[in-house]
C-alpha cells in the first residue's frame, strides 16, 4: 500500500485548480440510470469512487466511455438490470444512490449495502422512510437492500434529520413518479443543487433545491444532454487551509467562492487574508493566527468534511480554540495521530479543545478515513526537520485527485512510495 512522504516547512505559493465535486459526481453518475438517452458528464474528479461507479453503471447494462480523464459519456438507454451487488459497490457510501435511481427507473432495486468512511453509525433509515412514503416496500437481507413498488406516487416527506444522502436519494426516486413529491427539512449542500440541476437539464421538474423544501413534479421521461459538475467545496477548503498553515499565498481556482463562506469567514476571524474573485479565492497568511471556535453543521454551516483539516489549522493558531462536531458521532479518530506531531487536544464528547502550538514534529501517521487522511497531509506540510509519512493513502485517494502533484506545484515537497 502506498504512503505519502512529506518534508514540511515549505511555504505554499501559486495556483491550484480544483476538480469537480466528489459528492456531486457520486450522485450524478447513479442518476444517469434514470435517463433514457446519453448523459455527457464533464468535470468529474478522476478518483476511485467515480471509477467504481462507472463499472457499476456498465454492470447494469449502460454503455459508458471516458472521452477524457474528466468526462464520461453514459448511455443508460440500454440499462436492463435492477441489481447492483458487486463487492466494490458495497465498499462505497454512494452506492445507496443506485437504490433511488433503479427504483425510479424500474420500480425495483437490489443493491449491496453502503460502506464508506467509518465515523460511527451511519443509518439510512431516512432514505428508507422516503422510499416507503413513495409506495415502495423495502427489505434488508444481510448486506443487501431490496426495494420494489408497483408504482411510485408523489407525497410529502419530512426528514427527521437533515441528510444529504436521503435528500438526493428521494429526489432520484421521485423524478419519474406519478404526481408531486415534497421533501421538507431537506439538506441544502451545493451538490444537492447540482444533482437537481442535472436532473432538470435532462427534463425533470425539481424546484427548491438549495432551500429546505424541495418540490419534485414527476415527469414521464428524462432525455440526454451535457452537464458540468460543480467544483468541489471540500477539496477547495483543504487547499485554502494548506495555504494558511504554511503561511503561504495561494490562488484556489475554479471554485464558487460563495460555497466557501463558512470557511472563509472563520479564516478571516483568524487573521488570514481572503480575497474573492468570480471563480477563485486568494489565501494569504503572513501574520500570527488567532484561535477561534468552530461548530460543524449542515450547509450553509461549517462542513463536517472540513472538520479534521480545520483541527490542524486551529492547532497552529495562538491560544485555545474549540471545535464541536455536530453531524457525525465519531469524527475525532484522527486526534491521536495529530498528537503524534505535537498537537495539543482534549476531547470531551463531541467537543475538542485545541491549544495552538508553534511547531509540529515529523512522525509516522495513519489515515483512517478520507478527510482525516487529508488533515494528516496538512500536518505533514507544517512539520519541519524531517519526513512525515502518511500511511493508508487509499483513503485520501478516494477524494483527492493528484494530491501530491497539486501540492508540489505549489512548492511543497511530497512524494509517494509503494514501500
Ligand atoms: N442520518 C440518519 N439517517 C439517515 C441518513 C443520515 O440518521 O437515513 C444521519 C447521519 O448519521 C449523520 C447525519 O444524518 O449524523 C448526516 O448524514 P448525511 O446523510 O447528510 O450524510 P451522508 O449522505 O452519509 C454525505 C457525504 C459525506 C458527508 C455528509 C455530510 C456522500 C457520498 N457523502 O454523507 O461525505 O460527510 O454527507 O455532509 O455524499 C466525505 O466526502 O468525506 C464524506 C464523508
Number of helices: 14
C-alpha termini separation:
7 Å
Percentage beta strand: 25-35%
Bound molecules: uridine-diphosphate-2(N-acetylglucosaminyl) butyric acid
The count of β-strands is 24
Please state how the strands of the largest beta sheet are arranged side by side: 22-23-1-24
Structural class: alpha/beta
Question: What Rg is obtained from the alpha carbons, in whole angstroms?
Answer: 21 Å
Folded structure, characterized:
- The chain is 31% helix and 25% strand.
- The chain has 419 residues and is an alpha/beta fold.
- The strands form six sheets. The chain has a four-stranded mixed β-sheet. A four-stranded mixed β-sheet has the order 2-15-17-16.
- Helix 1 packs parallel to helix 7 (190-201) and helix 4 runs parallel beside helix 6.
- A hairpin with a 3-residue loop joins strand 16 (273-276) and strand 17.
- The chain contains 14 helices and 24 strands.
- The longest helix is centred in the middle third of the chain and has 13 residues, at 233-245.
- It has helices at 22-31, 48-59, 87-91, 97-106, 125-133, 164-174, 190-201, 233-245, 261-269, 307-315, 335-340, 370-382, 393-397, 403-409, and strands at 3-6, 13-17, 38-42, 63-68, 71-75, 83-84, 108-112, 137-141, 144-148, 156-158, 180-184, 205-207, 213-217, 225-228, 249-253, 273-276, 280-284, 293-295, 320-324, 344-348, 351-355, 364-366, 388-391, 414-417.
- The structure holds uridine-diphosphate-2(N-acetylglucosaminyl) butyric acid.
- Uridine-diphosphate-2(N-acetylglucosaminyl) butyric acid is lined by residues 22-23, 26, 93-94, 117, 122-127, 161, 163-166, 187, 304-305, 327-328, 370-371, 399.
- Uridine-diphosphate-2(N-acetylglucosaminyl) butyric acid binds at residues 22-23, 26, 93-94, 117, 122-127, 161, 163-166, 187, 304-305, 327-328, 370-371, 399.
Amino acid at each position: 500500500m502506498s504512503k505519502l512522504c512529506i518534508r514540511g516547512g515549505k511555504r505554499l505559493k501559486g495556483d491550484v485548480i480544483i476538480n469537480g465535486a466528489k459528492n456531486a459526481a457520486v450522485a450524478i453518475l447513479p442518476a444517469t440510470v434514470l435517463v433514457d438517452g446519453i448523459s455527457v458528464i464533464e468535470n468529474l474528479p478522476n478518483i476511485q469512487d467515480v471509477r467504481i461507479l462507472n463499472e457499476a453503471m456498465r454492470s447494469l447494462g449502460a454503455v459508458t466511455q471516458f472521452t477524457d480523464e474528466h468526462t464520461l459519456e453514459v448511455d443508460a438507454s440500454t440499462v436492463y438490470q435492477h441489481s447492483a451487488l458487486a463487492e466494490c459497490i458495497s465498499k462505497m457510501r454512494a452506492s445507496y444512490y443506485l437504490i433511488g435511481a433503479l427504483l425510479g427507473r424500474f420500480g425495483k432495486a437490489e443493491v449491496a449495502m453502503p460502506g464508506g468512511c467509518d465515523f460511527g453509525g451511519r443509518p439510512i433509515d431516512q432514505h428508507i422512510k422516503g422510499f416507503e412514503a413513495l409506495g415502495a416496500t423495502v427489505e434488508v437481507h444481510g448486506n443487501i437492500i431490496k426495494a420494489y413498488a408497483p408504482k411510485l406516487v408523489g407525497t410529502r416527506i419530512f426528514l427527521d434529520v437533515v441528510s444529504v444522502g436521503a435528500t438526493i436519494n428521494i429526489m432520484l426516486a421521485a423524478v419519474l413518479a406519478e404526481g408531486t413529491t415534497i421533501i421538507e427539512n431537506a439538506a441544502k449542500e451545493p451538490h444537492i443543487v447540482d444533482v437537481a440541476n442535472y436532473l432538470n437539464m435532462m427534463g425533470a421538474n425539481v424546484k427548491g433545491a438549495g432551500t429546505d423544501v424541495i418540490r419534485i413534479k414527476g415527469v414521464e421521461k428524462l432525455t440526454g444532454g451535457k452537464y458540468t459538475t460543480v467544483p468541489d467545496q471540500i477539496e477547495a477548503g483543504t487547499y485554502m487551509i494548506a495555504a494558511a498553515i504554511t503561511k503561504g499565498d495561494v490562488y484556489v481556482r475554479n471554485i464558487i467562492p460563495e460555497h466557501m463562506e463558512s470557511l472563509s469567514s472563520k479564516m478571516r476571524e483568524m487573521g488570514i487574508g481572503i480575497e474573492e474573485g468570480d471563480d477563485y479565492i486568494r489565501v494569504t497568511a503572513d501574520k500570527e493566527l488567532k484561535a477561534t471556535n468552530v461548530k460543524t453543521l449542515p450547509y450553509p454551516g461549517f462542513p463536517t468534511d472540513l472538520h479534521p483539516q480545520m483541527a490542524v489549522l486551529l492547532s497552529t493558531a495562538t491560544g485555545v480554540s474549540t471545535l464541536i462536531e455536530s453531524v457525525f458521532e465519531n469524527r475525532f479518530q484522527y486526534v491521536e495521530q495529530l498528537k503524534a506531531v505535537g498537537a495539543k487536544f482534549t476531547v470531551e464528547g463531541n467537543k475538542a479543545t485545541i491549544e495552538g502550538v508553534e511547531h509540529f514534529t515529523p512522525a509516522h501517521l495513519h489515515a483512517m478515513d478520507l478527510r482525516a487522511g487529508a488533515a494528516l497531509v496538512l500536518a505533514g506540510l507544517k512539520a519541519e526537520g524531517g519526513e512525515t509519512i502518511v500511511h493508508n493513502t487509499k483513503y485520501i485517494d478516494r477524494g483527492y485527485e493528484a494530491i501530491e502533484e497539486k501540492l508540489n506545484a505549489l512548492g511543497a515537497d511530497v512524494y509517494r512510495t509503494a514501500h
